[in-house]
Amino acid sequence: MKAEDYCKKCPECGSVDKNIDIVKVPKKTEGIPEDVLKKAQESGKLTIIRCSNCRHIFEYAKDSKMDVEFKKICIQ
């Protein structure tokens, strides 16, 4: 996913917040690209970019190292 794509709205709910989740490889693997699934099965982990609000899946990352680093800053 390109850096400018992280700011796009979710097609399901319109939210712009996203989570990067690292999960175990699920038993149901339909919809996951084969090259991503092969690497995930080798490591036992799958990296998913999801909407924070509705959990819509934007992308399955090919490896756990992300191209862009984000830092969350809270101002109160």
Automatic annotation (TrEMBL):
It comes from the Archaea. This is Uncharacterized protein. It comes from Methanobacterium congolense.
